[in-house]
Amino acid sequence: MSKAEILEELPKLAPEDLAEIQARIEDLAGDGWLDADDPLTDSQKALIESRIKEHEKAPGTAIPWQEFDARLKRRLGE
Predict the structure, then answer these.
(1) C-alpha distance across the termini of the chain, in Å
(2) CB-based contacts of 63: which residues, under 8 Å, 6+ apart?
(3) How far apart are alpha carbons 1 and 38 in whole angstroms?
(4) Does residue 10 contact residue 18 with C-beta atoms inside 8 Å?
């Protein structure tokens, strides 16, 4: 199958199939693409990693995006 054929078929796939393909592509690509022209500092990256670990320890403390967005807008007076 050619690249053009693959790209043509992607929109036809179910969301779970697309997620599986995306995960596989990310596995193949490795983490190298994350650092290419990366504007994040090492301390910012460490903060993100620590917050991910905190979330993994207590995923029940997370809130849905819609709730976060609403809280933020209220806080900013929007």
Answers:
(1) 50
(2) 71
(3) 34
(4) yes
Structure tokens at 6: 């693959």
Tokens 């403390």 locate to 61
In angstroms, the Cα distances linking 58 to 51, 52, 62, 64 are 11, 10, 8, 15
Which two tokens mark 58?
């207590």
Convert the pLDDT of each residue in 49-78 to its tens digit. Answer: 999 999 999 988 889 999 999 999 999 998
CB contact at 8 A, 55 and 61: yes
Q: Band the pLDDT of 47: cuts 50, 70, 90.
A: very high
| 72 vs 55: CA distance, rounded Å | 20
Question: What is the Cα–Cα distance from 6 to 1, expressed in whole angstroms?
Answer: 7
